[in-house]
Amino acid sequence: MASPIVLGLRAAQLVMAFVILGLSAYVANWYNVDTLTSSPSQINWLLFCSLFTIISIAYIELAPRFMPKVAHPMAFVGLELANVLFYFAGFIALSVFISKLLFCRGSVCGSARADVAFGAFEFLVWGVTSFFAVRDNLKGGFNFRRNRGQAPLAGPQMKESQLA
Fold first, then answer.
1. Are 50 and 20 in contact (CB under 8 A)?
2. Is a pLDDT exceeding 50 seen at residue 133?
3. How many CA atoms within 13 Å lie on the side-chain side of 3?
4. Alpha-carbon distance values, 158 to 8, 14, 155 (Å)
């Protein structure tokens, strides 16, 4: 069972993912509709990151409850660390992109800057939950190793004959 702190951080991650999704979609739409160029890859990357976060949170929170056979502790750690890496790359790339623009004004620029800020916060929150996930898995000895050395639950594979 997850602690109340982790559940609160998950809620914050989900809310920020939807905020980033909206901001990135707004900026991408502006590029695709009002300019002659397509939206920058940095915006598209943060758009992907927000969708990946929504799917990750759904798996991390719902799989242990409803599909325990597909819930693996190392998959949780992998998703946590992937989100940390994705948001780190995303907010850094978008901030560098914005810093190299000749001018940046208006609601689109403000949305892109807010996208960077929310991406940085999302990176920090995923970093905290990743720390908790790695710590809990190291403390538990990685769940898939716990039964090493024990006999299988199916019973003996061979039995001696009673004829002799």
1. yes
2. yes
3. 7
4. 52, 52, 9
According to the model, what pLDDT value does residue 146 have? 44
At 76-109, the pLDDT tens digits run 999 999 999 999 999 999 999 999 988 888 899 9
Phi–psi pair at 92, nearest 5 degrees: -70, -45
d(CA 6, CA 12): 10
Specify the pTM: 0.81
Instruction: Report residue 57 as tokens.
Output: 């949170």
Whole-number CA gyration radius for the chain: 23
Question: pLDDT tens, 12-67?
Answer: 999 999 999 999 999 999 999 988 889 999 999 999 999 999 999 999 999 999 99
Chosen CATH of 4-143 out of 1.10.3470, 1.20.120, 1.25.40, 1.10.287:
1.20.120
Contact 94, 43 (CB under 8 A): yes
In sequence order, what are the residues at sequence separation of 6 or more whose Cβ sits closer than 8 angstroms to the Cβ of residue 120?
87, 91
Query: What angle separates helix 4-34 from helix 106-140, to the nearest 10 degrees?
Result: 150
